[in-house]
Amino acid sequence: EIVYFNGEWMKYDQAKISVFDRGFMFGDGIYEVTPFYEGKAFGLQEHLARLQYSMDEIMIELDAASLKPIMVEAISKSGLSSADAAVYIQVSRGVAPRTHYFPEDVEPTILIYAFPASLKAFENKQWSVLVSEDLRWHRCDIKSTSLLANVKSNTQSHRLGLDENLLLRNGLFTEGSHSTIFFIKNNVVYTHPEGPQILSGITRKFVMEICKELNIDVIEEAFPFSHLNTVDEAFLTGTTTQVMAVKEMFTDGNKIYDKPEIGSLTRKIQQAFIQKTR
Ligand code: PDD
């Protein structure tokens, strides 16, 4: 309902952007989503650091740390101080006449708001996912608002009644449309290495820490589609996804992965994650 827009708090329908905002015209902007468990931020420094990284990479000059008090205020102003919620931050290039290059000295457009998020009970759910081609660009490490490939893929899985996508680039799993993928094989956890092909997930980082604490080996290696039949367990992670077990995978109407029960290592990691975040 209430949003922070370019320095002021207002009702969402009072916030107006220019048709020449480059976020609107080019998707020239970046965003960040930070979880708040019962009013308390989790991984705040990590989210601010990634926000700074995204802005630096696209040359938006703004100090991410200056947005920290506004994030906290967004939670209280939205009456979410004792609920599970998340804060959305979007910074776009700003308003300028339409040219592909961006001119210098454009004021960025800043939008921040809090929304209720169901961060609980993921240990009672499993997701069914569509395996599809990774149609995205080669800088997925930037949390860009240009999400057309993610939107196209996720709409396809949604229309099939599925929960998420697993994206394949050159026969290797990269990540989900809005989550990180982990595979478990012979008690070893595999996840794609950081780099331009994936978003450096904050939940991913915490889950890797958990694996270390539990003495579970993690290999940061892209998992091949052709090895899917050797997988014991798979789970997805993300700010809104938390630690979600994968139940089924589909391609072109065929079921290619079927695990009706949540695996034992996934359960262990989920329990440790709940301990960490609560
Ligand atoms: N999505 N990969 C992609 C492509 C993502 O969009 C996200 C997060 C993740 C998980 O990152 P993290 O653990 O830091 O949330 C991985 C956010 C939540 C979104 O788009 O809403």
TrEMBL record:
GO terms of molecular function: transaminase activity
Pfam families, per the entry: Aminotran_4
SUPFAM superfamilies per the UniProt record, alphabetical: D-aminoacid aminotransferase-like PLP-dependent enzymes
Annotated keywords: Aminotransferase, Transferase
Domain of life assignment: Bacteria
Listed InterPro entries: Aminotrans_IV, Aminotransferase-like, BCAT-like_C, BCAT-like_N, Class-IV_PLP-Dep_Aminotrnsfr
Gene3D superfamilies given in the database record: 3.30.470.10, D-amino Acid Aminotransferase, subunit A, domain 2
Family to which the UniProt record says this protein belongs: Belongs to the class-IV pyridoxal-phosphate-dependent aminotransferase family.
Protein's name according to its UniProt entry: Aminotransferase class IV
Organism: Christiangramia antarctica
